[in-house]
Amino acid sequence: MMQSGNNKKAVMFFLLLFSLGSCLAGCSGMEPARTKADMMAEPVPPLVLAAGDVIDVKFFFVPELDESQIVRPDGFMTLQLLGDVQAQGKTPAELHRELLKRYAAHLKNPNITVMIRRVNDSRVWVGGEVKRPGPVQMTSRLTVLEAIMDVGGGTRPMADLKNVLVVRQREGKSYGCLVDIKEVLKGKESEIFLLQPRDVVYVPPTAITKADDWVDQYINKLIPQAKGLFIYPIGPGGAGSVGIDTTTGAR
Prior knowledge:
Layout: H1 2-27, H2 36-40, E1 54-59, E2 67-70, E3 76-79, E4 83-86, H3 92-103, E5 112-118, E6 123-128, E7 134-137, H4 144-150, E8 164-170, E9 173-179, E10 200-203, H5 207-220, E11 229-234, E12 240-245
Helix pairs in contact: 1-5
């Protein structure tokens, strides 16, 4: 009876190991929609104003009308003589043309400059196997490696640096590519991947990390944890063995 119980446990154990191998084989690779070269060649889209952007409006001959405004959540800002003006959805050039047209009814030959003081939605997000995941504001060019080292504070030991996923959001769609930064961290030459506003950088775990999580969930938590050492013979004549050690404490 004892032998039968052990055989059932052995069968369960090997089935779980087989499932682990299948899972890692099928889940270890990602298949992004784009290649690194494709996404590196994409031009940065033109700036479109949005809520939270800070805009300076300067009048060359009438400085008392100068304004520094934050685009409100409803997409409008308020200017002297004009009242509410919609800024969201326009490029700076389009806003400039509209202001020239509307101020022409109040000023003779208005000379106006529109300056974007701060762009609110120029962040990228870094997550996954990094020490401090979160957003970072792009004030100038930003590479994948710089983003990870800056807001991420570096990576965790089990980060898969050969398969960093960059996800881009454009025209209502999301797509991505894989970027290898492992070789760069060894001092080897590699092409620089420049991020664009609203990109998401995800550093995945290695297959070993996935295996550890799988073992904890499906073996340690599913197999009854009666304290003991279960040894199962394998190979011709029991030449080898494999086992589960549950003597280190119950869960």
